[in-house]
Amino acid sequence: MSDSKKIVSLKNARQKTKETNKETANTSEPVYCSFCGRPNTQVVKMVQGPGVNICSECTMIAVQYLILEDKLPSSEAQKILDIFWSKIR
What is the Rg, in whole angstroms, of the alpha carbon atoms belonging to the chain? Predict the structure, then answer.
């Protein structure tokens, strides 16, 4: 998978201009996660927002935190977490 396909850009999501989103996602420079600092070349996917980026791993950590905040995740939520983390390792 090319590095440009690993970046999903939401910078202009409100404007819904596909051309602008494609131009942003096709950059050859690395995109770094604003949370962990890893470049898009070292993660599964990267989501770009206006002035902020988050990798798939940090997204799942955040989702896991929000789910586990209730102390007992639902069985469906736990399945999603288990599948994601098993594919990362």
Answer: 15
